[in-house]
Design a protein that fits this description.
- The protein is of the alpha/beta class and 576 residues long.
- The protein is built from 21 helices and 18 strands.
- Helix 1 packs across helix 2, helix 10 packs across helix 13 and helix 15 crosses helix 16.
- Among the domains are: 156 residues, inorganic pyrophosphatase (n-terminal core); 111 residues, Diaminopimelate Epimerase, Chain A, domain 1 (Roll); 120 residues, OB fold (Dihydrolipoamide Acetyltransferase, E2P).
- A 5-stranded parallel beta sheet has the order 3-2-4-5-6, sandwiched between helices. A 5-stranded mixed beta sheet has the order 7-8-9-11-10, with helices on both faces.
């Protein structure tokens, strides 16, 4: 409940009124569209019902012609191709798309995923040497490689060509090979925020265009692309939004067997949203690489053998249960370290370390710490070699964690990542120095006021704008049905938050001693609407003491086959 409430700037109201008339929608819907830069009927049509014809030409990406030419030479000459991917969801879905497609065209292809513990993140020397020993002429990396300059030099010396497909921020010098990365400074590709799997998809799209292959087969993999977009938390805008829209449709209507079995084990029903992918599918796919072998995730996503899939899905389900136990245990340990740090209140960062923590879950633990202590966070553990530490970083608004680590790079052996998430390796003896530098660099870009989480609100709304005259509170109102078309939600297109003032509660109570359940109403809207506020028992006293203001999303409650509207409360304050 300690958050800043920031209402977005009001859009041009003349444009709102014009769009409202053109589209025959409510003022609330038109207002939100114009806020998103959608001011015409045609742009709104593209937003709600875009087509795959609107995808960008893959050849707008720098080096794409060279990449297509090199892959075609390998296919024509029967050269051995190795698809090299990262062990997380983005990497394993990327492998499933690229290997799954090309393996239908050649038998001389295999894939490689580095071991999280013995090789670490990205392109490894072991991977390159294994490729050489097994006669591979071409390596295509997916979701990794953009800073693997030394490994590319090794490959070149061994007579192996490389095509790097990555979406991470490049270093000062690109590797000496073919590089596909929309974040290259010299790349004019119109959309910069593709996932790693998205870059791999564009390579296959370019190959299909050049060679006259059936794109329908390619588009059958959009479900995997939607999973990568959700799991890697890339912006749900532009091309990502379009790919995710069609990918979710594919995921729900033509669910591949492995995912279907996994969903059944998780007791998760369809239809799935991008948020469901983040919290149900992604952790289970990730669990394979965190606890055991990420190759099992690729088999789960590509195999048609039901017996094999049932066995792998069950093992991945079990890995996920183990991961959840480790997550809980290590999070509690990390929180205790923070709580016992007498100087913590004076810091802008959280950096915690313990040599026994499981490397596979430290990224999750970093996210948990941000939920409790809203500040840039790094969780570190001992590497297998005993001489280095491995860490995962998560960040907050206003702090580009990649830039911060770059400014600390003289204390690190290696690092890589995005604005909000990154990984790093450092020598044991550098830990104290790194912690000091990290704190110093973060302090240069934020102050104490930035360490309060924000609620970014679309607009203030009255309950009678949600339920039109004659609409029952027991049926999902038209506004909510239209707002569902703003999905898929994700960064830069989050689920809309609204502010309601002068609200009263009826029948307020705590569920399991921590979740506030109540019915809410406003003085000039006497109908009572179901509302729930998770993990905030202290809010009960506020709602019992009279009028309050609340920030909330419009949600649905599905119970015993009946769907009713429900407000999901995000914050509450006494009404002044």
């Amino acid at each position: 409940m300690n958050s800043k409430w920031l209402i977005k700037d009001a859009p041009n109201l003349q444009q709102v009124e014009q769009l409202k008339k053109e589209m025959n929608v409510s003022e609330v819907v038109a207002y939100m569209l114009v806020q998103r830069g959608i001011t015409t009927f045609d742009s709104a049509k593209s937003f709600f019902r875009g087509t795959l014809k609107e995808l960008h030409d893959p050849f707008l990406m720098k080096d794409m012609e060279r990449a297509v030419e090199r892959v075609n030479i390998a296919l024509e000459e029967g050269q051995k191709i190795l698809i090299y991917g990262d062990y997380d969801v983005d990497g394993t879905t990327a492998i499933s798309i690229v290997y799954g497609y090309l393996s239908q065209l050649t038998d001389t292809i295999a894939y490689y995923i580095p071991d999280r513990y013995s090789e670490g993140y990205g392109v490894s020397e072991k991977g390159i040497r294994d490729a050489h020993e097994n006669g591979f002429s071409l390596i295509i990396t997916l979701d990794c490689g953009i800073k693997a300059n030394e490994k590319v030099e090794l490959a070149n010396s061994l007579g192996i060509d490389m095509i790097i497909c990555d979406h991470h921020t490049p270093g000062k010098e690109l590797p000496d090979c073919i590089v596909l990365d929309p974040k290259r400074e010299d790349c004019n590709y119109p959309y910069k925020e593709l996932s790693g799997a998205g870059v791999g998809f564009k390579l296959i799209q370019a190959l299909a265009t050049t060679n006259g292959w059936d794109e329908k087969i390619l588009f059958e993999n959009l479900d995997l692309l939607a999973i990568s977009i959700a799991a890697d938390i890339v912006p749900a805008t532009g091309e990502n939004r379009l790919l995710a829209q069609y990918g979710l449709k594919q995921l729900n209507e033509k669910t591949r067997p492995g995912i279907d079995i996994m969903l059944n084990l998780a007791k998760k029903e369809k239809p799935l949203t991008l948020t469901d992918v983040v919290f149900t599918i992604a952790p289970r796919i990730n669990a394979a690489g965190r606890i055991d072998d990420a190759k099992k995730a690729v088999v789960l996503l590509t195999s048609q053998d039901e017996k094999e899939l049932r066995s792998i899905a069950q093992s991945i389900h079990d890995f996920n249960e183990e991961r959840r136990g480790l997550d809980k245990e290590i999070t509690e340990h990390a929180l205790s370290i923070v709580e016992n740090d007498s100087d913590y209140d004076q810091k802008c960062t959280t950096v915690v370390y313990h040599e026994t923590w499981h490397k596979g879950v430290i990224g999750i633990v970093a996210s948990r710490l941000i939920e409790n202590y809203y500040r840039p966070t790094i969780v570190l553990t001992q590497s297998e070699d005993g001489e280095t530490l491995t860490g995962s970083a998560r960040s907050i608004k206003g702090v580009n964690i990649y830039d911060i680590l770059e400014n600390c790079s003289d204390t690190l052996l290696q690092f890589g990542g995005h604005y909000f998430a990154a990984g790093m390796t450092l020598k044991n003896e550098q830990l104290s120095n790194f912690k000091l530098r990290f704190e110093e660099e973060v302090r240069k870009v934020i102050g104490a006021e930035n360490l309060i989480p924000e609620q970014i609100i679309e607009k203030e709304i009255h309950f009678n704008q949600i339920f039109n005259l004659g609409e029952s509170i027991y049926e999902v109102p038209r506004l909510m049905r239209v707002l569902k078309q703003f999905e898929p939600h994700g960064p830069q297109n989050m689920k809309p938050l609204f502010l309601a003032k002068n609200v009263y509660a009826h029948d307020a109570k705590l569920l399991k001693e921590e979740h506030l359940k109540m019915k809410v109403f406003q003085p000039d809207f006497q109908k009572h609407i179901d509302a729930i506020f998770f993990k905030c028992p202290e809010a009960l006293e506020i709602v019992k003491n009279g009028a309050f203001d609340m920030v909330f999303t419009l949600d649905e409650n599905n119970f015993r086959g009946r769907t009713t509207p429900q407000f999901m409360v995000k914050d509450i304050r006494p009404h002044l």
